[in-house]
Amino acid sequence: MRCTGCCEKMKAMKRIPAALLLAVLLFALLGAAPAGAVEPTGEGFVIPQLDDLPRVDLSEPQFMLANAYNSVGLEYALPEYADLGGQGIDPAVRDDTRAMLDAAHADGVNIYVGVAYRNWDYITYHFEEEVLRYGAAEAWLHYLPPGCNEHQTGYAIDVTDNPYDNSNYYPYDDSSVYESPVYDWMMEHCAEYGFIFRYPEGKEAWYGAGCDHFHFRYVGREAAAYIMEHDLCLEEFLYLIDPHSLYVPGLTSYATF
Fold it and tell me: What is the phi/psi pair of residue 204, to 5°?
């Protein structure tokens, strides 16, 4: 982690009113986004009409939902985690992830995990940095806070072609990644190992944040194959399985959640 300017950042952080930071974190706990995040209306949703849904148990941990509107809890932490090249990950995901990376390398595509599990303290620190940089509302479009950040679940990875890269492969708003060998391989093969492309463009109303182009999420092979085949985001899939399993502003309400 770069330390240049850390002292100044910490001094600036102390000047943020405590009430502001508390309010931001309370939004994460409640699973609702602040005013600056995407706030869809029911008119903007097109619900896919699919009748061949797989039978999955949404209570299984790989389906836990963390996004701008739904939280796994501010202090959720993995009870244990497995090592994956220096990155922590849920033990249930390690073998499939390792097999996926090995298969990519065998195909001549160098893919590594740059970011996997991140705990509450880590996510909180970096979210506060984004608040300082962009303001509390816009920060959600760049980095989700604890509870809402998928890296806290242990089922999310950011991939890279650099084994020494310990951060996102590209800036979140750089769509040039779509022309990269890493992206092409992942989009073609990730579902074979239980992963999905987590934040497809054009579906921001469902997850309420900016697109993270190299962020993938483990949901198991059956669900992943269905999601990728039908070009769904995770929220659409969960809604189709059980509309009461998630909260989406403008589409569902806390009364039905």
Answer: -60, -30
Give strand pairing partners of 247: none
**Interacting residues of 133 by C-beta distance below 8 A, sequence separation 6+:** 139, 142
pLDDT of residue 16: 35
Comparing CA positions, the residue from 72, 71, 70 lying closest to residue 252 is 70
First CA to last CA across the chain, in angstroms?
A: 39
Residue 89, phi then psi, degrees to nearest 5: -155, 155
Q: How far is the C-alpha of 42 from the C-alpha of 26, rounded, in Å?
A: 25
86-122 residue pLDDT tens: 899 999 999 999 999 999 999 999 999 988 999 999 9
Q: Give the contacts of 237 (CB within 8 A, at least 6 positions apart).
A: 219, 223, 226, 227
C-alpha torsion sign, points 194, 198, 202, 203:
positive
Q: Indicate the SS3 state at residue 175.
A: helix
Residue 18 CA to its chain's centroid (Å)? 27
pTM of the shown model: 0.82
DSSP bridge partners of 139: none
Q: Measuring CA to CA, how many Å separate 123 from each of 74, 77, 142, 151?
A: 10, 12, 12, 8
Are 1 and 210 contacting, i.e. CB atoms less than 8 angstroms apart? no
Distance CA 63, CA 193 (A): 15
Q: Please enumerate in sequence order all residues whose Cβ is within 8 A of that of 107, keeping only pairs 6 or more positions apart, or say none.
A: 185
